Amino acid sequence: MVLIFVYGTLKRGQPNHCEMTTAKNGKAEYQGRGHTVVKFPLVIAGKYNIPFLLNVPGSGHHVKGEIYSIDNEMLQFLDKFEECPRVYQRTLEKVKIEEWEGASNLLSTDSPVGSIVEFFVYTTKSYIPEWLKLDCHENYDAYGAHGLTYIERINRSIDWPFNI
């Protein structure tokens, strides 16, 4: 099993969370919540209002998200889903644990709340420089007060990911 940290549409209650729970994609078990140790700019950008975690360490916020334990099948699915490595790059980042909830969570004994653990995170270096001027968010919610409606993949033109 591999540990990942998700901060956008894959979180519970968000438009793409169903991808984490679809058995044909592999296995994903929710483990808890945390936030990045290093600040990053989390922006909502492009014509589809996609959340992007820009790989610009030190600016932005300590981004909040969810921790999952996933199998290799789910990891391969997520790499394809996130257009890795063209749009997003899967990097190891330090996350401070805020809460453990996973029923089968062996990590909670080795890494209690408050611990810092490395997780895979999808960040991007493939962004338009103007995105650095956008509002940064600490916690993404597709239905948030920002008013930037996320456009689901099924409603996007075929130019994705190249015309984001």
From TrEMBL:
An example molecular function term from Gene Ontology annotations: gamma-glutamylaminecyclotransferase activity
Chemical reaction(s) catalysed: epsilon-(gamma-L-glutamyl)-L-lysine = 5-oxo-L-proline + L-lysine
Pfam families: GGACT
Alphabetical keyword list: Lyase
Single biological process term from Gene Ontology: modified amino acid catabolic process
GO cellular component: cytosol
E.C. number: 4.3.2.8
Function: May contribute to degradation of proteins cross-linked by transglutaminases by degrading the cross-link between a lysine and a glutamic acid residue. Catalyzes the formation of 5-oxo-L-proline from L-gamma-glutamyl-L-epsilon-lysine.
Similarity comment: Belongs to the gamma-glutamylcyclotransferase family.
PANTHER family in the record: GAMMA-GLUTAMYLAMINECYCLOTRANSFERASE, TROPONIN C-AKIN-1 PROTEIN
Protein name in the entry: Gamma-glutamylaminecyclotransferase
Organism: Polypterus senegalus (Senegal bichir)
Biological classification of the source: Eukaryota, Metazoa, Chordata, Craniata, Vertebrata
Gene this chain is encoded by: Ggact
